[in-house]
Amino acid sequence: MASPSNAPSLPCRADEWSVHSDGSAMPNPGRMGLGAVLVAPDGTRHTLSEAAHGTGCNNEAEVRALMAALQALKARGVQAVRVCCDSSVVVTQLGAASAPPIARLAALFDEARGLLAGFERACVLWIPQHRNQEADALARAALGLTQPRTVKPHRKQRRS
């Protein structure tokens, strides 16, 4: 399994599926919505939008959304995946051995690592929120929220 990174998204390999995943908790903590866009190598798109059982925080919703997407891909027999996620917590927890564990979510992250290890090739990349709006909308729709979230691209401030 390739380790997660903050590298910019590169084009997928011929046999690789791409996934954009996002989770939402309303309020935080609260009900959790999971969203993902799964794109096959031929460009065919599939979406996932579901409410998670129970309540949790945004970080839990984010990792549960990633796990739901991975489970859907495994059910399709996929062997290579590139996951794009706007949660730096998820990317760090899944990839950096030196990342201090989040005790309450440690078992969940272990489960996610196990799912990733089940693929011949897998990587998790961080992307900014404005590049993950469709997955965010699917996560919010699972909670009955139809108003789009306004996400502005991060811009560097100029020094005077």
Automatic annotation (TrEMBL):
Enzyme Commission number(s) of this protein: 3.1.26.4
Transmembrane spans: none
Classification via PANTHER family: RIBONUCLEASE H (PTHR48475), RNASE H TYPE-1 DOMAIN-CONTAINING PROTEIN (PTHR48475:SF1)
PROSITE patterns: RNASE_H_1
Span list, region Disordered: 1-26
Top-tier EC class: hydrolase
Gene3D superfamilies assigned to the protein according to its UniProt record, in alphabetical order: Ribonuclease H-like superfamily/Ribonuclease H
Listed Pfam families: RVT_3
Domain RNase H type-1: 13-144
Family annotation (InterPro entries): RNaseH-like_sf, RNaseH_domain, RNaseH_sf
UniProt name for this protein: Ribonuclease HI
CDD domains to which the protein is assigned, alphabetical: RNase_HI_like (cd09279)
Any one GO molecular function term: RNA-DNA hybrid ribonuclease activity
UniProt entry keywords in alphabetical sequence: Hydrolase
